[in-house]
Design a protein that fits this description.
About 40% of the residues lie in helices and about 20% in strands. By secondary structure, the protein is an alpha+beta fold. A hairpin with a 3-residue loop joins strand 13 and strand 14.
Length: about 400
């Protein structure tokens, strides 16, 4: 799959013999940020309207995630932040906020509608170094209305013919490339029942998109290309709007469902504890917490005393041991296990509610930079205090 992705990048860069559309053609607003491929017929009236609206959207999208005059209003109710993937996408993270230039690669009319698929590439160039980098190729939907062209999230279009199944509080959307697994859906319902007892709360309606792999998951989100499509064989996401995206070829994904409950009940919880609790309850990827815990124990034994837990407290910067076990997920997961074993789940809920910095919160459960590694190592020597044991 990596080779397919690289081929896609080379083809897009090669096809991007593109030109500016100047103001004389009335295709851009007041900016020349947008580049347009020569395969796009800019003289077509509808295409000109789309390009003008697209430039307007690109120039205003970073001002707010909650509203935009060029975006379909109903999308904000369904997806909350429908163009979050495009927020500051031009930024290279090294000080150049407009490094990845948006390039319109194509417009595809959707049959029997006044709608078009809009294909955007974000390409960075360093001419002196002879480098071009594609950050993403992303699809939107443009729709012609009396008020003009408006854009919407590609996801609704992509999954419109997917099988829909209702199981308890979950609405499943099943990829046509797979068959829904009733046993997994039943298992997921049992897990949700446990979650409701654990949190002492009511069920949250969840839209669950069941994809065969991360590549299809990213295609559902609108991507034709993103590097993360090809770096793992499984994974998933929890997104605003009570959306769970599974790339595990499975109808069971408690980890991401825990994220949705945490988002509702403890919206200010620190990422450290958010990922830790999701891993403690639901494991990660295709494996449960007990499996990852055993791997983590092996990792600590292999690298101790060089391993220092305080170096892995950012869950977004992780080292995957043996390709599966994210150490920065397992450290907070073991902290959660230790917390509920010693102090009970109410203490864990207090931690999730806290807005204090990480080390101040950890201090309330007897952990600090000096003893974190030692305490986690000691916890791993104890029998697993599993989520199923909690009352």
């Amino acid at each position: 799959m990596r080779n397919i992705g690289l081929l896609c990048v080379f083809l897009i860069v090669g096809a991007c013999n593109r030109k500016h559309i100047d103001s004389a053609a009335n295709c851009l607003a007041d900016s020349k940020r947008l580049l347009v491929s020569e395969v796009v017929d800019v003289k077509t009236a509808d295409h000109a309207l789309i390009i003008s609206a697209l430039e307007g959207f690109l120039n205003t999208k970073d001002q707010s995630l909650c509203q935009n005059a060029h975006w379909l209003e109903s999308d904000f109710k369904q997806y909350v932040y429908p163009y979050l993937d495009l927020y500051k996408i031009e930024d290279d993270g090294n000080g150049d906020k407009n490094f990845y230039r948006p390039s319109l690669m194509g417009l595809v009319k959707i049959k029997n509608t006044e709608r078009w698929m809009v294909k955007l590439a974000f390409i960075g160039s360093r001419p002196l170094e002879g480098q071009q980098t594609v950050k993403a190729i992303y699809n939107l939907i443009a729709e012609k209305r009396e008020s003009g062209m408006v854009f919407s999230k590609y996801m609704s279009h992509y999954v419109q013919d997917w099988q829909t199944l209702q199981r308890g509080s979950i609405t499943y959307k099943i990829s046509p490339l797979k068959t829904a697994d009733e046993a997994e859906m039943h298992r997921q319902q049992l897990e949700i029942t446990k979650l409701l007892q654990f949190y002492d709360t009511q069920a949250i309606p969840i839209a669950y998109y069941s994809c065969i792999n991360p590549k299809e998951l990213m295609e559902v989100k609108g991507y034709d290309y993103s590097p993360i499509m090809y770096i793992s064989e499984n994974g998933g996401m929890a997104e605003k709007g009570n959306i769970v995206l599974s790339g595990n070829n499975s109808e069971y994904y408690t980890h991401e469902i825990v994220h949705q409950y945490n988002a509702h009940l403890y919206p200010d919880s620190a990422p450290f504890f958010n990922e830790g609790l999701a891993t403690y309850i639901g494991g990660s990827g295709a494996y449960d917490y007990a499996w990852h815990r055993a791997k983590f124990k092996k990792f600590v034994a292999e690298y101790y005393p060089n391993f220092q837990a305080e170096d892995f407290t950012n869950p977004y910067i992780s080292y995957d041991y043996e390709g599966e076990t994210a150490i920065a997920y397992l450290i907070p997961a073991v902290v959660c296990e230790r917390t509920v074993r010693l102090y009970g789940k109410q203490k864990l809920f207090e931690i999730l509610q806290s807005k204090a910095d990480l080390w101040t919160v950890l201090d309330t459960v007897g952990l600090n930079k000096a003893n974190l590694t030692e305490e986690l190592t000691a916890e791993l020597q104890r029998p697993l205090h599993s989520f199923d044991q909690l009352k």
